Amino acid sequence: MLPLIKRAHDFEEAQIWPILSVETTTILDIKETLNRLSFEHWGDEDFAEQVFHLLRDYAQLPEREKADALAWTLRGFFQNMQRHIAFEREFLLPLIANRE
After folding, report:
1. Is pLDDT above 70 for 99?
2. pTM for this structure?
């Protein structure tokens, strides 16, 4: 899961964000927004790594405490991803669509 998320983030940051930074003049704080998203990417990747380790630990020795920790971490991971994707869908995709 982490490599997939990392590749998606790398693609966004390397391919999409430079275009938005240069061509988007209607939004004054686009660079600040992209910086914030970059920090969110790090958080998402950290969550994905935690999920990996907790899943591995739980698979090796299923215990109630490990299940609770896994459930809590998955909940946080999915909430972060849903929020992040919703923002990109509502904010970034229209910017990209408008440049065509």
Report:
1. no
2. 0.78
